Amino acid sequence: MSKYKLIGVGTNAKTIKGDGSEYETAILYMAPFKVVVDGKTHNSCAMAEQAGCVKPCLNLAGRGAFSNVIAARLRKATWFYQDRAAFMAQLAKDVAKFAASCAKKGVQPCVRLNGTTDIRWELIKLENGLSIFEAFPDVQFYDYTKISNRKVSHLNNYHLTWSYSGANASYAAQLDSAIANGMNAAVVFRDQNTIPAMWQDYAVIDGDKDDLRHLDPKGVIVALYAKGPAKKDTSGFVVDA
Fold it and tell me: Is the pLDDT of residue 241 over 80?
């Protein structure tokens, strides 16, 4: 049984690649996109429809396809929307416990809050009036996002990578503005063996070697390859190099 109620450590095949003598990553997974709680629909991924990533969502990749995992993610999302204050208090407890565990190991704690969501955590306050990032300045937070204009430059410990999709022309056109906003762009390629060295005039790096996006150089395309339902995507979300 996990010692954390909300976050998971060592449960993601990709983040494990970066865990070791220097870093360890914890991830929060919740049910994505539209979640119905007490008869009200909440959207945890504001740009999902515009980006065309509802069907190829990574939420169902790997362990995410198991019914018990799906149920657990729904329970967390329900708690988040039913009792935000209690949820955030528990999240802070989990992050504090994780940071203490990493300190004992002598590694840098890294946390991804949007494992399968795209919530603007920078706008949510804890009981002390601080965001989760401000409350834990020694923890490195990072996420993927489809919101190209998020304002997080004031947070030294929160790194965002914009997630590209060609399923919608107006969304795809935000590539340059996202990079100008200080974010790299993650692009999902269909075949990992044909990922190009350059794409849309930007250098391409391999984003599947590990998940430590805050260590990436600036102004690059982070190449990922299709997983789960995304392997069959033909909307433009997955790119054919």
Answer: no
Q: What is the pLDDT of residue 233?
A: 79
pLDDT over threshold 70, residue 57: no
- pLDDT value at position 40? 92
The DSSP secondary structure of 210-237, one letter per residue, reads: -S-GGGSPSS-EEEEE--GGGGG--SSS
Q: Which two tokens stand for residue 196?
A: 């190009």
Structure tokens at 22: 């220097």
For the segment 225-240, what is each residue's pLDDT rounded down to a tens digit? Answer: 887 777 787 888 888 8
Structure tokens at 209: 């070697």
DSSP code for 155: -
pTM recorded for the entire structure: 0.89
Q: How far is CA 174 from each of CA 100, 168, 178, rounded to the nearest angstrom?
A: 39, 10, 6
Tell me the three state secondary structure of residue 160.
strand
Domain ranges of the chain: 7-239
Name which of 20, 38, 33, 53 is nearest 227 in CA terms.
53
Residue 109 predicted with pLDDT over 70: yes
- Nearest partner of 132 among 155, 107, 103, judged by Cα: 155
Nearest to 53 by CA among 71, 38, 33, 39: 33
The pLDDT score that the predictor gives to residue 34 is 82
Confirm if 163 and 143 have CB atoms less than 8 A apart.
no
Gap between the Cα atoms of 80 and 46, Å rounded: 16
| 187, 162 contact by CB (below 8 A) | no
